[in-house]
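hey so i finally got around to running the thing on that chain from the lab meeting. sorry it took forever, my laptop kept dying and i had to restart like 3 times. anyway pasting the input first so we r on the same page abt which one it is
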Amino acid sequence: MKILIPVDNSSLNGDVSMSFGRTPYFLVYDLETNESKFVLNEAANSQGGAGIKAAQYIVDLGANILITPRLGENAAEIILAAGIKIKKAHALSAENNIQAFVKNELSDLIDIHAGFHGHH
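ok and heres what got predicted. didnt touch it at all, straight out
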């Protein structure tokens, strides 16, 4: 099972990014092997539609779970349509959020916002 988390830097101890579409990196964490890798978010510098592009990117990466503090509705539609579960991140490090997920302490993300649509 692959968990994806938007992060501000390429460290397990780094903070979860508040911006899904514009996050600099995604942490890809494999629960079976405990391997983690950081991938650049190629959508971060998009003129528009960064959330949608980032959502498609994580689908392509084979994510099963997305842990994020918030998400726009267009990105959420793509992610949910792909069968990826969305969990609400705690205001902690990426590693702490993974541990919270494993302990079943993260709730489903239900407060999907309308998206920023060109507002940075």
